Amino acid sequence: MTAPEAGTSHYGNRPSLGRMLARASVRHCPRCGSGRLFESYFRLRDHCPGCDYLFAREEGFWLGAFVVNFVVAEGAVFLLMFAFIFRLAATEGTQQGSMLSWLVMGVVLAVVTPIVFYPFSKTIWAAVDIFMQGARPDVDRHGRTRRG
């Protein structure tokens, strides 16, 4: 059996956005589905061990991952604020409760969510980039130029 053409996955074509996002959501390579992308919880390898895909091809590449992480963190805080407002409206303000507890939950959520979501934001951003850019020149770990 011949190796897949450069720029395609092991399935023969570039995966759909849904498949790439599903792979990325479990910290696998969005392009080929290979695991072992992270050396540690916070350290992503430069290349995919399965398909040699180079993740950060240029300076500033991970700015998109920062945006994804920021949106998720702010979305979580927004949902907490929505829950607070809903609870306040449902009890018509008569519920005895501490505003401080909601504030502490918001601060904890705003700090913990980006830390927990950090590696997922990188693989999700890689999936979005592969989907948007399609096949483009790349350099694998051996210094060879390839399409992918």
Write a concise synopsis of the structure shown:
With 148 residues, the chain is mainly alpha-helical. It has helices at residues 17-24, 63-90, 99-133; strands spanning 137-139, 145-147.
Largest sheet: 2 strands, antiparallel
C-alpha Rg (nearest Å): 20 Å
Quote the average pLDDT: 83
* Percentage beta strand: under 5%
Which residue ranges are poorly predicted, with pLDDT under 50 across at least 5 consecutive positions?
1-12
Q: How many domains, in number, for the residues?
A: 1
How far apart are the termini? 20 Å
Task: Give your account of this protein's structure.
Helix 1 packs across helix 3 (99-133) and helix 2 (63-90) packs antiparallel against helix 3. The protein has 148 residues and is mainly α. The protein has a two-stranded antiparallel ribbon. The chain is 48% helix and 4% strand. It has helices spanning 17-24, 63-90, 99-133, and strands at 137-139, 145-147. It has one domain (17-147). The model is unreliable at 1-12 (pLDDT under 50).
Key attributes of the depicted protein:
single chain; 148 residues; two-stranded antiparallel sheet; 3 helices; 2 strands; elongated; disordered N terminus; membrane
Record the SSE blueprint:
Blueprint: H1 17-24, H2 63-90, H3 99-133, E1 137-139, E2 145-147
Antiparallel strand pairs: 1-2
Helix pairs in contact: 1-3, 2-3
